[in-house]
Design brief:
single chain, alpha+beta, OB fold (Dihydrolipoamide Acetyltransferase, E2P), BirA Bifunctional Protein, domain 2, 18 strands, binds 4-amino-1,4-dioxobutan-2-aminium adenosine-5'-monophosphate, binds magnesium ion
């Protein structure tokens, strides 16, 4: 008998047919003369039904004795079943055990509660559970949406290097790497500086890749390795940057709502919090943000950067992301364009997520004037030699330009409603975690 091999996601198209599905035993429920193996295959979970009277004795015994996460290939007939989670069940006709997990060394993650450290240590296995599976599928959808948004809006993907000779976001969070003959290089903190070069070649570009921050912050929003998407646009102003940031976020949220409802449901996400994410986002200035925060009891003074708690406090006032612009020049990176009318603030913007998820996006307009850039590099004590090529961009056809960076993990954490970014990436890298 030859039956088609399918995935659980495809089961609906095979109702009434016998099919073969390779996968793993998620769980096994026994009820007298019937056992219900829950089969998972990465595309979904399917309840199978094995009835003692319908199967040969040894086969039924084999199924009854299955252990969690054993790899199995189940053959059976797909049947519509309204009460089943995916709308279908499978009546088992045959079952091949590829590897049976022994009782002497059982699968370590059981349906009972485990502590977060235990789960993190077993991340390579934890990824199989429903919740982690749902989060990473949302992540995939977010990344797909990001690429589709930029690809269909005239941006060219130009990826930037990971080994870099200089800091982009301050020298205190650099990971140093030995690079042959004693030369030191750093893992990139951001592709932005290179994006500025490629934007002058292509007009609108984006890069998307891993970035690194040697930050000793053990918070629910910080990873030492995270994925950032960064668009950069020639002849763009701060207002252009804000518009693109807003459009991108709305596009991503709509995509996830369209394609990943089941996953959001698995995560018990309150969909109304996502359904209200529409343009325009509220826009406020840093000055106003400081006043609002002080009124809410924050210790912030004009001139200081917003802390994580401030971002949470501010974000809570709105049902959609809030854009805060014109931060003090002194707290922002060397490349930020000062406001010509108020040089003490920069034409930069941070987009803060609602529900306390903090900064999603940081960006703005870059300094395009050669003299001003040289002055800022010197003031911040940065090594001018390392920036030679970057300075060249202000000599050969300089023009106003800008862009931003969005951390994928922060975005996924917010959309999924998670209280920590560690679950938004398959293998998180944090201050005290580089394994598995
Ligand atoms: O605000 P940041 O540091 O901005 C830049 O790196 C700019 N050069 C980007 C640009 O204009 N092209 O980082 C941008 C975003 C943050 O808003 C946040 O979402 C994320 O990157 N991010 C982190 N995510 C996780 N862990 C960390 N340690 C992060 N640091 C920043
Ligand atoms: Mg920032």
């Amino acid at each position: 008998m030859s039956v088609p091999t399918i995935t659980i996601a495809e089961a609906g198209r095979h109702a009434g047919e016998s099919v073969r599905i390779p996968g793993w035993l998620y769980n096994l429920r026994k009820s007298g003369k019937i056992v219900f193996p829950l089969l998972r295959d990465g595309t979904g979970i399917l309840q199978c039904v094995a009835v003692k009277s319908a199967l040969a004795e040894p086969l039924f015994e084999k199924i009854k004795d299955l252990t969690q996460e054993s790899s199995i290939v189940v053959t059976g007939k797909v049947r519509a079943e309204q009460r089943a989670p995916g709308g279908f069940e499978m009546d088992v006709e045959d079952l091949e055990v590829v590897q049976r997990v022994p009782e002497s060394d059982p699968y370590p993650i059981t349906p009972k509660e485990h502590g977060i450290d235990f789960l993190m240590d077993h991340r390579h296995l934890w990824l199989r559970s429903r919740r982690q599976h749902a989060i990473l599928r949302v992540r995939h959808e977010v990344i797909r949406a990001v690429r589709d948004y930029f690809d269909s809006n005239g941006f060219t993907l130009v990826d930037t290097p990971i080994f870099t000779p200089a800091a982009c976001e301050g020298t205190t969070s650099l990971f140093e790497v030995n690079y042959f003959d004693e030369e030191k290089v750093y893992l990139t903190q951001s592709g932005q500086l290179y994006n500025e070069a490629t934007a002058m070649a292509f007009g609108k570009v984006y890069c998307f890749g891993p970035t690194f921050r040697a930050e000793r912050s053990k918070t629910r929003r910080h990873l030492t390795e995270f994925w950032m998407v960064e668009p950069e646009m020639a002849y763009a102003t701060l207002e252009d940057v804000k518009r693109v940031a807003e459009e991108l976020i709305v596009f991503i949220v709509n995509r996830v709502l369209e394609n990943r409802r089941a996953e959001l449901k698995e995560l018990e996400r309150d969909l109304s919090k996502l359904e209200c994410i529409r343009a325009p986002f509220p826009r406020i200035g840093y000055d106003e943000a400081v006043k609002t925060l002080q009124a809410k009891g924050s210790e912030i003074q004009w001139g200081g950067d917003l802390g994580g708690t401030d971002e949470t406090l501010l974000g809570e006032d709105y049902d959609r992301p809030v854009m805060v612009d014109r931060y003090p020049t002194a707290v922002k990176a060397f490349y930020m364009q000062p406001d010509p009318e108020r040089p003490e603030v920069v034409l930069g913007v941070d987009v803060l997520a609602p529900e306390g998820h903090g900064e999603l996006i940081g960006g703005g307009q870059r300094i395009h004037d050669l003299g001003l850039l040289l002055k800022r590099i010197e003031e911040q004590g940065l090594p001018k030699e390392a920036f030679d090529w970057y300075i060249d961009l202000r000599k050969y056809g300089t023009a106003p330009h800008g862009g931003f960076g969005m951390g994928i993990e922060r975005c996924v954490g917010w959309i999924c409603g998670l209280d920590h970014v560690r679950e938004t990436i398959a293998f998180p890298r944090m201050l005290y975690r580089t394994r598995p």
